[in-house]
Amino acid sequence: MNELKWKLLELLHQDAFLDAKQLAVMLDKAEEEISQSIAELENDGIIMGYGAVINTEAVNDDKVSALIEVKITPQRDRGFDAIARMIYSFPEVKSCYLMSGAYDLMLIVEGENIRQVGSFVSDKLSVLDNVLSCATHFILKRYKQDGNVFTAQDEDKRQAVSP
């Protein structure tokens, strides 16, 4: 992949609302070249979509998110991919990663409430043949995600203490 495409990916990751004309000015390239490069990135499956990052606390969304560590037994001749595919197919699973270290898969799941996430873990995830164990960690507050800071820095209102 050439340098132009790398720069385009970086800029679009920061702000997906930038159009080809704006990107062309920023990169000192022709608008047609930018449009063609973006189309190639989309066609090659490198750019898979565009989306908004939503501060769910600001819209009073009471959904619950959890990080789940999953230990699995890889399948013969298929490794981790087949079981990961089965797991990430559940609609509750928002992200699924193969990890190194103490567990094999890390999932980010979402539910309407704690009970729904718990039900997913006990009724769907932990009963799969290749799943050895799960450790669920509920996300209490997001401070930063994908480079976006979700909390404003509060001014320190403590009174100064001098010796």
CATH class category name of the largest domain: Alpha Beta
CATH topology of the largest domain: Alpha-Beta Plaits
Helical amount = 25-40%
Structural class: alpha+beta
Q: In one word, what is the shape?
A: flat
Which percent range describes the beta-strand content? 15-25%
Topology (elements, then pairings):
Layout: H1 3-14, H2 20-27, H3 31-43, E1 64-72, H4 81-88, E2 93-98, E3 105-111, H5 114-125, E4 131-138, E5 144-145, E6 148-149
Antiparallel strand pairs: 1-3, 1-4, 2-3, 5-6
Based on the model shown, name its key terms.
Alpha-Beta Plaits; 6 strands; 33% helix; 163 residues; 5 helices; two-stranded antiparallel sheet; four-stranded antiparallel sheet; alpha+beta
Short description:
This protein has helices at about 5-15, 20-25, 30-45, 80-90, 115-125; strands at about 65-70, 95-100, 105-110, 130-140, 145, 150. The protein is α+β, with helices and mostly antiparallel strands and about 160 residues long.
Description of the structure:
The model has no long low-confidence stretch (mean pLDDT 91). Strands 2-3-1-4 form a 4-stranded antiparallel beta sheet. Strands 5-6 form a two-stranded antiparallel ribbon. The protein has helices at residues 3-14, 20-27, 31-43, 81-88, 114-125; strands at residues 64-72, 93-98, 105-111, 131-138, 144-145, 148-149. Helix content is 33%, strand content 21%. It has 2 domains: 3-43; 64-141, Alpha-Beta Plaits (2-Layer Sandwich), CATH 3.30.70. Helix 2 (20-27) crosses helix 3. A hairpin with a 6-residue loop joins strand 2 (93-98) and strand 3. It is built from 5 helices and 6 strands; from the N terminus they run H-H-H-E-H-E-E-H-E-E-E. The longest helix has 13 residues, at 31-43. The chain is of the alpha+beta class and 163 residues long.
